[in-house]
Specification:
This protein is mostly helical. The chain has 2 domains: 66 residues, no CATH class; 73 residues, no CATH class. 72% of the residues lie in helices and 0% in strands. It is built from 9 helices and no strands. The longest helix is centred in the N-terminal third of the chain and has 25 residues. GO terms for molecular function: protein dimerization activity. Pfam families: Dimer_Tnp_hAT. This is HAT C-terminal dimerisation domain-containing protein.
């Protein structure tokens, strides 16, 4: 669920960048209604409208980047949380962990523990329940701290649902 939220936000931001680039080039492939309307107006009128749409797109892009700046900064930590086997070993820094060197070694050991990999398919929270606090104290404690940022799965799920609803309307 968390991975889907993060992916949806960043995919949308990247699409906004793509749309702006295409609009500025006059490529309206992603805008079928605008493409159809463009056939009925002069090129000067079309240029004026596409410049306006490019500005609107840029404003929307900037708004999303600003609103989700914290999420962007936390992205490596969220990657660690939802997919520790593909996270960078150096992603765990203070204040998330007290011993960065030990956390790096634990990450390497965790990534090589094949019997934990199937547990990740059960879900993020279920996976971290199976990780041993004795064997991976720094890594497990970091995961608990990151999970606590979201308060509850209800909050996370409702934010994701709201985002999907907004995306589907626009």
């Amino acid at each position: 669920m968390l991975r889907d939220l993060v992916q949806s936000v960043f995919a949308f931001v990247n699409k906004l960048k793509l749309f702006k680039t295409h609009i500025q080039k006059g490529d309206l492939a992603h805008f079928p209604a605008l493409l159809k309307a463009s056939r009925q107006v002069t090129s000067a009128a079309l240029n004026k409208q596409t410049a306006r749409y490019a500005r609107l797109d840029e404003n929307l892009h900037e708004s999303f980047v600003t609103r989700f700046r914290d999420l962007q900064l936390k992205r490596p930590k969220i990657t660690f949380l939802v997919d520790p086997f593909n996270a960078e070993t150096y992603c765990l820094k203070a204040p998330l962990v007290t011993d960065e060197a030990a956390a790096e070694l634990e990450m390497i050991d965790l990534c090589e523990e094949d019997q934990l990999k199937p547990a990740l398919r059960e879900g993020t929270i279920e996976f971290w329940k199976t990780v041993s606090m004795e064997k991976y104290p720094n890594v497990k404690w970091a995961a608990v701290k990151i999970l606590s940022m979201f308060g509850s799965t209800y909050v996370c799920e409702s934010v994701f649902s709201t985002l999907k609803h907004v995306k589907s309307k626009h």
